[in-house]
Amino acid sequence: MSSADRFAAALYRDGWSLLPRALPPTDLQALEKDLADAFARTPLCQGPFYGERTRRFGALLGRSALAERLVMHPAILAIVEAMLLPWCERIALNLTQAIEITPGALPQLPHRDQDMWQGPKGSVEYLVNVMWPLTPFTRQNGGTRLWPGSHLDQDVALFPEEESVVPHVGLGDALMFLGSTLHGGGGNASTAPRRGIIVSYCLGWLKPFELQWLVYPPSVARGFSPDLAALVGYAQHRPNLGNVEGQCPSILLSDEVPRHLPAVDALRSDQVEAANLFVRGQMGEMG
Asked: In this predicted structure, what is the pLDDT of residue 286?
């Protein structure tokens, strides 16, 4: 069993896990510096769910080149794929978001992120979240509350607050938890803001929380590596899902895009075999 499979097994068992020292703390400090202006200019959220003493903003790949180190972290991608590929052909980036919980903020309503999709629950995992602290997470400053095992009992909307855990997460650590795990930001009883980054990945056939292809239009995505461009949506999910004129949307990243294009099959291997067999049968009947 690979290290990614072992970590995924622990993640499935408890609903969350911590990957220590996933990146050098200096990477997170440099990223926070790049985002300082956005933190300063972003208004507080509106509404009781996001939190009216909380700031949130997305599109981090367009705000700092350092965000790619979080999004494309090889060990994390391997763990996410081990969790999600049983239900899809490829994973997709669901969101990148910076969060600042200011002093005096109340605890967030406990919730499961997968509930944004109205599919069957309990048999499919839709999402994996990764929290990257910009300031160490503690219970005092509003660290993320998690309910271990809540992913295994999804008919229960809320569990007692005292059953939650708040892992201490330092700079460079990655806190991973499932979209089926009950969680919520904590209340900030300290005198300083609690800042962090959330990167989440979902099944490749889902509509993501953050519409990546609008956040990163072709003019932006042309500057991405092919793997990153595919992760944000410039790739088809077989069979034929998410195409442009019947072709992979990566065609939009070319210097010149033809006005008229032929539709090209993008099928799974079993579907290719079935289609070819059907065509050969038809040709035999005609013969």
From this structure: 65
Looking at the chain, which residues constitute the CATH 2.60.120.620 domain(s)? 3-231
Coil vs helix vs strand at 168? coil
What are the beta bridge partners of residue 203? 91
User: Token pair of 211, please?
Assistant: 């519409």
Q: For the structural domain made of 3-231, what CATH number should be given?
A: 2.60.120.620
Q: How far apart are CA 166 and CA 73, in angstroms?
A: 24
- C-alpha closest to that of 200 among 129, 120, 139, 268: 129
Running along the chain, 287 residues long, what does each successive block of 10 average in pLDDT?
Answer: 83 94 97 98 95 96 97 97 95 98 95 93 93 96 94 82 93 97 96 97 97 95 96 94 91 88 87 88 71
CA-CA distance, 246 to 266, in Å (whole number)? 9
Residue 182: count of CB within 10 angstroms of its CB: 26
Residue 93 belongs to what H/E stretch?
strand 91-101
From residue 171, how far is each of 122, 162, 256 by CA, in Å? 33, 26, 43
Three-state DSSP state, 84: helix
- What pTM does this model have? 0.93
Instruction: For tokens 């099959």, name the residue.
Output: 265
Three-state SS for 232?
coil
